[in-house]
Structure formats: structure tokens, C-alpha cells
Amino acid sequence: MYIETLEQIRKMIKADGLVAGDKLPSERELSERLQVGRSSVREALRALEFLGLIETRRGEGTYIKEVGNHRLIDLLGMFILQDERAKEDLAETKWLIERLCLQLACQRWTEQEFAHLEKMIRQKTINYELFFQWVTAAAQNYLLERIWRVLHDFFQTIHGIMSFPDHFYEQMLNAFAKRDVAAVITLWETDRQSPLSKER
């Protein structure tokens, strides 16, 4: 029942135009408005709070949180990536997401972002993780960024720390400067061999 209540709350939030920082109606008000029992409302709110989508402030009420602060991706990763088959597919999925983010970043980087990348490369303070933190941020797709972070953390735990030679970053910088997607992808596929061909 609480799943249906979750959907009703989602529709109510959309219909009322509520955004992060806005206060939700009380349990009693939600129960009356949605015409469901208070226990169902309570369970639905607990689920939303567990995922970090809302927060309860003692004595104040319940508020919507920034979408970026939710833990849904982290929680999914925690359970899904325990499966042995999922672990086998981890490298492949991560590679595909990195390739897509490189393409998007090449098309979407801002002048400020490019200057930051150039500074890290020129000062030789860059590494694999910092590079892809930049790439996923410049791709301007928050969900892909969060998914990459979870996959990267699990991958690093299993396979250790990855690295690229300095010339990789310098060549990437030149390709990004020209917004040359084809060159970026070619560099990526040359220095980071595709794990897509798997024997079954």
C-alpha cells in the first residue's frame, strides 16, 4: 500500500510545484488529502527519508531535499554489485559510461571547466580519478556522474588504482580544446582497451 502512497505523494509534489527546501504537509494532512491511512503515509515518508529525498527537522516538519543529495544510486550499488555476474560486468559497464561521459564532456565543457582541466594537466596534478571527476562533471548529467562514482569505487576495490601516462592527458586536452569528439574517443579506446569482447 505504501508504494501507491509514494506515487501519490510524488504526484502531489509535482502538482503543487514543491521544490527542494519546501515543507511537506503533515502526516495527518497527507492522510486526509490522499485518502489513505496514516500508517501508509508514515511508511512512505520513512522510505523517502531513507533514500535521502526528504528530511525531518525536529519541531519544524518534513522538507524536500536537493535531488543531488539522495542515496538511491549508492544503495543500489551496495546491493546489486554484490552479485557475481554483476561484478563480471562491472568493467564493461564502467567503460561504456566513461566513453559516453567523455563524448558529452567534449560537447558541453564550459570555459571555466576547461581552464581547470588545463591547470591540472599543466601542473601535473592530475590522475585517473581526478580526470574522470572532471569529465563526469563537465558532461553535465548528474545521474551519470553518480553512477560512475559508485562503479569507480567498486572497481577500484576489486582491481586497484588505474593510471594513464602524462601524454594521454595532454592529448586529451588538445582534443577537448577543439571539441573533437572523434579524437577524444579514439584516444580513449587506444589507451583504455575495450572490455566489450567477452568469452561466453
From TrEMBL:
Superkingdom of this protein's organism: Bacteria
Signal recorded as keyword: no
A molecular function GO annotation: DNA-binding transcription factor activity
A Pfam family annotated for this UniProt entry: GntR
SUPFAM superfamilies in the record: GntR ligand-binding domain-like (SSF48008), Winged helix' DNA-binding domain (SSF46785)
Keywords noted in UniProt: DNA-binding, Transcription, Transcription regulation
Lineage: Bacteria, Bacillati, Bacillota, Bacilli, Bacillales
Protein known as: GntR family transcriptional regulator
Domain HTH gntR-type: from-to ranges: 1-67
Statement: the UniProt record of this protein carries the keyword GTP-binding: no
